[in-house]
Amino acid sequence: MPARFGGCSESKWDTSPKAFSYGVWRILEGIDGDPSEVIRKRIEFCLELGITTFDHADIYGDYECEAAFGKVLKDVPSLKSQIQVVTKAGIKLKSAKFPDRQVKSYDTSYKYLIQAAEKSLQTLSLDVIDLFLIHRPDPYMNLQETGAALNELVSSGKVRAVGVSNFRPDQVTYLNRELSQPLAANQIELSVLAQDPLWDGTLDQCQSLKMLPMVWSPLAGGALFKDDHKPVRSELELIAEKYQCDVATLALAWLMNHPSKPIPIIGSNQRSRIHTLATARNIELERDDWYKILELGAGREVP
């Protein structure tokens, strides 16, 4: 079965048509002291559920999540062969860790991307990053320079595949022209309430180029469960009853039923919640129900 991430043919890749990724951006929340045991148990629990991909970024947890996760991989190296690690770089935050930074900015220069990937390898205790993403489109990007950095990371064996996050289809096209190995993924915002990728060509491009659409904020950052969207939620509850699930699981199933096979990134710190959401992979929506959910989220019929 072909791997889903670019040139990577490692057998450990989750190549199933309905897969999840676990997002670590909040994994340190509410933890006092050494988080290693909590993180190890979270990894093992995800593996029990068939969730093998873990989504990182160098900036998560004010630049601390990668190191905490990497400590667990260093202490329990057998986990490395069971998981896929995705990480992102290119955002430079104002932070006490970088007191000289006066402004939040993006940096997709050759030097910065190489250094960022090498730093992530070190902090994550890895020999190779499975998928390395540019976190945001950079208005100051030099396409040739950025492409050269990504090519170098692949050819040197530091990363298996490269991708982007939050890129428009035209931006993907332009960057792909500079690459020896095409972009393997585009990590995008998509949910019942944030439907632009369905209409702006993003998911069409993913299908055409066989790129993996990874989805951040697949539950609209919790907005779906706020009072502003109570009428929408009430209608979704009726559909959810039909499929014997809750609204959140239905919302994920709606994404995963799309032909481009999006991979939602779930970031709950509650084991029971992770377990429930993972059942979305078992739900096959009828086409009319998929369109009902589309209409509810958009607030109007399709044209």
From TrEMBL:
InterPro entries: AKR (IPR020471), AKR_Detox_Biosynth (IPR050523), Aldo/ket_reductase_CS (IPR018170), NAD(P)_OxRdtase_dom_sf (IPR036812), NADP_OxRdtase_dom (IPR023210). GO terms for molecular function: oxidoreductase activity. Transmembrane segments: none annotated. Gene3D superfamilies: NADP-dependent oxidoreductase domain (3.20.20.100). CDD domains: AKR_BsYcsN_EcYdhF-like. It holds the Pfam family Aldo_ket_red. Residues 40-295 form the NADP-dependent oxidoreductase domain. GO terms for cellular component: cytosol. This is Predicted oxidoreductase.
